[in-house]
Amino acid sequence: MPSRIQSIGLRLDRWFSNHSRVLPWRDDPSVYRVWVSEIMLQQTQVATVIPYFENFLKKFPTVEALASCSVDEVEKAWAGLGYYSRARNLRAAAIQIVKAGGFPSTRDAWLEVPGVGPYTAGAIASIALEKPEAILDGNVERVISRIDRVSRSQAGSDAAYKAKLWEKAGEWVRVAHQAGVGPRNFNQALMELGAMVCKPKGAICGACPVQTHCQAFSKSEVENFPEKKKKKQWLQVAEEVHAWIDRDQLLLRRRAQGEWRAGLWDFMDQAPSGKTYKKVASFQSKHVVTRHKITRKTTVWVSEKRAGNPLPKGLETIWIPLDEVQIDGPQKVATGSAFQKTIQAVLSAARGNSI
Ligand code: SF4
Predict the structure, then answer these.
(1) With left for phi above 0 and alpha for psi between -120 and 50, is residue 296 left, alpha or beta?
(2) Which position among 38, 133, 141, 192 bears the catalytic label?
(3) Is 8 near ligand 1, meaning CB less than 6 Å away?
(4) Distance in angstroms (rounded) separating the CA atoms of residues 218 and 332
(5) Spatial contact of 120 and 110, defined as CB atoms under 8 Å apart
(6) Which of 94, 143, 288, 340 could be disulfide-bonded to 66 (CB atoms 3.0-4.6 Å)?
(7) Residues 138 and 156: beta-carbon distance below 8 Å
(8) Which 3-state string (H, E, C) describes 292-322?
(9) Is the pTM of the predicted complex or chain greater than 0.85?
(10) CA–CA gap between residue 162 and residue 176 (Å, rounded)
(11) pLDDT at residue 221 greater than cutoff 50
(12) Where are the domains of the chain?
């Protein structure tokens, strides 16, 4: 007779084998593919990630290809996914891995890799390497907290609550492994159950393979777990940018290391000092980026004469021909979402002034 945890493992394993979604990184769970997918899935939903993952793998099919690309190339392949430090860390990690002669083979060694935290290290070790290591993301937290009625208030603090969940996630994957359930299937089944059945609102308990073991279900307390967190604290940001258009070219500057959105290209922060520029439009737009609510004021300046318009010193700048600007920005440099959403309005304003 299997123990309770063994039974949870065996049921999840059977259920996952019959109900798992087809996802591109699941067909071939090699270390490289699992690593890239897990980095993309940090803070981004599965449906959004799929096309980016496929394009990224076409562009960089191996860790060696990723290690030999430029920062610009990797940021460009990432453009639109947000949290660009993930892309820069992937490239830095690829260089480190190639220098070391191959991928790390344990969870602890993965923790030394840039951009890899406890969740990602556990996911790579279990999904790609079949090691009985724990994972804990939002889906797993919800499933475990409901099955065992683990709450923040009982744990006493957020840290104690998280530690309890990690401990259970580790115990479950190890006990399931001893019962013959592979860590790859077990951990993915926990995540899949959270994503498809044990949903934040409206859990489909009637379709749940572990309903008989679920304490929150048996006490009719499903919606009480996990306990609600405090509301997200938004940071209000007001920013002002200036689009300099000099005849048929647009000036962009690259945000420097240490600045917010470092590495991305954007409009200028300052108005042009050249006397030939004319202000033709000014508009406001609102954007949400991670925890920031941004109110952006964009002013459009045009000049008919290129000569004599001085550029600010100490900035990395580039002139982009207007006919190379696509619907969401120039193709050859990586830009952020606020830029991409306003570039067409900038071009319209400029064209309205016969540029
Ligand atoms: Fe989640 Fe319901 Fe299954 Fe419990 S019975 S694990 S609440 S889906």
Answers:
(1) beta
(2) 38
(3) no
(4) 57
(5) yes
(6) 94
(7) no
(8) EEEEEEEEEEEECCCCCCCCCCCCCEEEEEH
(9) no
(10) 21
(11) yes
(12) 4-224, 235-351
The position carrying tokens 């190890």 is: 174
Residue 171, C-beta contacts closer than 8 angstroms, at least 6 positions apart: 5
How many Å lie between the centroid of ligand 1 and the Cα of residue 2? Answer: 20
Q: What is the mean pLDDT of the chain?
A: 92
Per-residue confidence at 355, pLDDT binned at 50, 70, 90? very low
Q: Are 276 and 309 in contact (CB under 8 A)?
A: yes
Q: How far apart, in whole angstroms, are the C-alpha atoms of residue 95 and residue 323?
A: 35
> 3-state class of 69 per DSSP?
coil
**Residue 274 pLDDT exceeds 80:** no
Q: Is 140 in the pocket of ligand 1 (CB under 6 A)?
A: no
Asked whether 144 lines ligand 1 (CB < 6 A), one says: no
- Alpha-carbon dihedral 150, 155, 160, 163, rounded to 10 degrees: -20
Confidence of residue 306 (pLDDT cuts 50, 70, 90): low
Q: Which two tokens stand for residue 311?
A: 């550029």
**Beta-carbon contacts of residue 351 (< 8 Å; ≥ 6 apart):** none
Q: Is 135 in the pocket of ligand 1 (CB under 6 A)?
A: no
Coil/strand/helix, residue 67: helix
pLDDT band with cut points at 50, 70 and 90 for residue 309: low
Q: How far is the CA of 204 from the centre of ligand 1 (A)?
A: 7
Residue 248: per-residue pLDDT:
85
201 vs 43 pLDDT, higher one: 201
CATH 3.40.430.10 corresponds to the domain 4-224: no
Residue 259: active-site member: no
- CATH number belonging to the domain at 235-351, selected among 3.40.190.10, 3.20.20.140, 1.10.357.10, 3.90.79.10: 3.90.79.10
